[in-house]
């Protein structure tokens, strides 16, 4: 027959097992709550980052559209001014030469009329050359403005990419610190329940750490790519024109 002491030991073991099961269940519940909270925070951070990037993209598109509109208007105005000035200069030159030709024809011999005609032809050629140079100047000025705007965009992209990289690196440092803390907690865990809880926390932190490192690598790649693209070259039309130098 089973002695009273053995029955008491069995009962005590049963009570201890029940308490351990309750404690393990509570620890598992706490770990699940903490894991869910970490996942919620990570999802919220990702959502905020996506919204921020979407706002930046919309703002960049708006700025680019406004800048392109301004450039088109300025280019059209510059071309029209150049055309009007060229037409005015050409008309004035033709009028003055015609007046001089008529005056010389009245006062000077025929050979002087021929000389005047030659001079008139040369003057028309010079006027045409001046008109062409003025048009080239307007084209070069427009190309320079476009190149300067492109360079400014590239520099702004570099600054924004660097800021995003620094933000993600800061997030990674926080996660690294939490991971080190989880490793230390696992090292000092004694009971089986404490060890299970510490391992679960460490596993979650390492998963989040790996994701953060991937984000840092991608952000660093984008920042380096933006930096390489920062050196925008001038358009050949502008680069070969004296008005851009």
Give a short summary of the structure:
The protein is an all-alpha fold. It is built from 4 helices and no strands. The protein has one domain.
Topology:
Blueprint: H1 4-107, H2 110-188, H3 192-229, H4 236-239
Helix pairs in contact: 1-2, 1-3, 2-3
Question: Your description of this structure?
Answer:
This protein has one domain. The protein is mainly α. It has helices at residues 4-107, 110-188, 192-229, 236-239. The protein starts with a helix and ends in a 6-residue tail after the last helix. Helix 1 runs parallel beside helix 3. The longest helix is centred in the N-terminal third of the chain and has 104 residues, at 4-107. It contains 4 helices and no strands. Helices cover 92% and strands 0% of the residues. Mean pLDDT is 81; it is low at 241-245. It is rod-shaped.
